[in-house]
Amino acid sequence: MTTLTVISEGVSPASSNDLTDYARDLTRSIVATAPRSCGVSAFLCSANTRDRDFFRQTAPQAEIIQSSRDRAALLRAWGVGLTGQHGDGMVHAPSLFAPLSRHDKINDGTQTTVTIHDTTPWTHPHAYPPKAVMWFKNMARRAQKYADAIVVPTHTAAENLTKYLDVGDRIRVVQGSAPTRVINADGNGQADPVRAMAGSYVITECGTSEFSGLSALLQAFSRPELNDVGLAIVARDGLTPETLAELTTSLGIAPPRVHLLTTGNGGEIRDAYRAASAHVLPGRADQFSSSMLTSFVLGVPTVHADTPVLNEIAGDAGRSVDASSDDTYIDGLAEALAEVVADTTQRERMITLGHDRARAFSWREAGERIWQLHAEL
């Protein structure tokens, strides 16, 4: 039986997003779409019992391969090409964390494909720890040399990647979808901070990283146009109530207007989205965002920065804001959010367009595309 091994680890150095949801959803879609007489192995590091238990419950058809090495040891070993038997056969990695080495695709059947989600380690290296950037660039060079294909989430990302790697025709676009942990979550009722909010509010997913756009968003909420609108923030990248309180206080934003959701509960996040008047994606880096797809699926109008990747994802379903300068962007965010929240007709139109746009993104199709890619190889 032909087996495709998926490196199902959701954390990778120099990643601008937590890839846990992506790695889980993609692995399950690959399992669900496996052709007849084909199987899937989910490869995990030694200490990753959480994902091991997750896949045993949600993808019981998959074989779990638990390495004897921890993640740090594998990062070092794979970074210098010491892949051992992990690099044998068909391997797909949802990041650059992959066993890349010289191999004979024709005679021994080894195929290795990797994923590069964006080019921010090249464009914004100062936003990451120096060692993480070194690791990323080293693995990108190894992918250029040894990967049979490199998967990217958008056509814009493919174009961006060609500025840094010479990989010929080996780039493939495979789009993911909204995280099923949120979309298909069980349970009812909103998280306590959201339930306490009065009136209309905007939801976002932000952290402390440069990419999140939190500072620009809070400055927009200090503008008079949004005085009567609340803000619910799903915490990312270690954003804490203390850090948020410092930021809002410095801008004169009343504490009751801004609430932080530190919950990892998918059901609470889903319900917080559904009750929101709008979703905002304030980050200006040219990178994929699953939260935009979450908002489309759950029927929440989205306001986002005018970047090539986000424009490609949104199509005509989002409202883009000129991000060419800080002042222009902050003023534009405030104006756009105020209009969307106040204009019921505009919101309903954006919700309809968002639902239509969401249909273009499917985990099942993503799984099928990965199998198709390996069949072509």
TrEMBL record:
InterPro entries registered for this protein in UniProt: Glyco_trans_1, Glyco_trans_4-like_N
Coiled coil regions, renumbered to chain: none
Highest taxon of source: Bacteria
Keywords: Glycosyltransferase, Transferase
One family name in Pfam for this protein: Glycos_transf_1
Glycosyltransferase subfamily 4-like N-terminal domain location: 91-174
GO biological process: lipopolysaccharide biosynthetic process
Record domain Glycosyl transferase family: where: 213-352
GO molecular function: glycosyltransferase activity
Name under which the protein is recorded: Glycosyltransferase involved in cell wall biosynthesis
Organism for this UniProt entry: Klugiella xanthotipulae
